[in-house]
C-alpha cells in the first residue's frame, strides 16, 4: 500500500525543472509568438524605411526635373532673344541676359505660386516652395553660364559667345538624355545636335510669330 502511494506521488510530481510539461509548452509558444511579433515589427520598420527612402528619391528627382525644365526653357528664350537682337543693341548683353532671365523667372514664379494655391486650397505646400526654388536655381545657372562665356571671350566675340554658351547647354542636355537612355557616344552626339536644332527652330518660330 505504501509503495502504491509513493508511486502515485512520483507520477504526479513536477519535473526536475519545476515546470509542468503543459506549462513548458505554453511558455514555448509564448516565446515563439514574441519572436514572431518582433520579426514582424523589424520587417515593418525596414519596409517603412525603404518606402521613406524611395519617397525621398522621388522628391529629389522631381526637384531636378523642375530645375532642368526651367533651365532649358530660359535657354531657349534667351537664344530667341539673341537671334532677334539688332546689331546696334549688342553692347550690353549681360544686362539683357539677366533682365530676360529675371523677368521669365518672376513671371513663372508668380504663375507657379498662384497655381499651387489653387490646387492646395489656398495654401502653398513645402514641396511647392522647394520646386519653385529649384526652378529659380535652374534659371540662374543658365544666365550665369551665358554671362561667363561673355566675360571670358573678347568684347567683339561677346554676342557669339553668348549664343555658343546657350547652344552648348542645350546640346549637352540632349547628349546627357541620350546617354542616360543607354545610347552610345556617337548616337548621343547626334541626338544632342537634333535637340539643339529643334530648340533653334523653336526660337526662330517664336521670333517670326512675334514679328521680329
TrEMBL record:
Membrane-crossing segments per the record: 68-86, 92-112, 133-153, 159-178, 190-209
Keywords, in A-Z order: Membrane, Transmembrane, Transmembrane helix
Protein name: Conserved hypothetical membrane protein
Biological source species: Mycobacterium marinum (strain ATCC BAA-535 / M)
Amino acid at each position: 500500500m505504501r509503495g502504491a502511494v509513493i508511486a502515485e506521488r512520483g507520477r504526479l510530481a513536477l519535473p526536475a525543472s519545476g515546470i509542468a510539461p503543459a506549462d513548458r509548452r505554453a511558455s514555448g509558444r509564448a516565446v515563439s509568438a514574441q519572436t514572431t511579433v518582433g520579426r514582424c515589427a523589424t520587417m515593418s520598420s525596414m519596409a517603412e524605411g525603404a518606402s521613406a527612402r524611395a519617397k525621398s528619391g522621388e522628391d529629389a528627382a522631381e526637384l531636378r526635373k523642375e530645375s532642368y525644365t526651367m533651365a532649358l526653357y530660359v535657354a531657349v528664350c534667351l537664344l530667341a532673344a539673341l537671334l532677334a537682337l539688332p546689331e546696334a543693341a549688342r553692347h550690353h548683353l549681360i544686362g539683357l541676359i539677366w533682365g530676360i532671365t529675371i523677368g521669365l523667372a518672376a513671371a513663372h514664379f508668380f504663375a507657379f505660386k498662384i497655381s499651387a494655391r489653387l490646387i492646395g486650397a489656398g495654401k502653398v505646400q513645402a514641396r511647392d516652395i522647394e520646386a519653385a526654388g529649384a526652378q529659380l536655381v535652374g534659371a540662374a545657372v543658365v544666365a550665369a553660364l551665358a554671362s561667363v562665356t561673355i566675360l571670358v571671350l573678347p568684347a567683339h566675340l561677346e554676342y557669339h559667345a553668348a549664343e555658343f554658351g546657350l547652344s552648348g547647354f542645350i546640346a549637352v542636355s540632349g547628349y546627357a538624355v541620350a546617354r542616360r537612355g543607354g545610347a552610345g557616344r556617337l548616337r548621343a552626339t547626334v541626338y544632342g545636335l537634333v535637340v539643339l536644332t529643334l530648340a533653334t527652330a523653336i526660337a526662330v518660330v517664336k521670333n517670326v510669330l512675334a514679328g521680329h
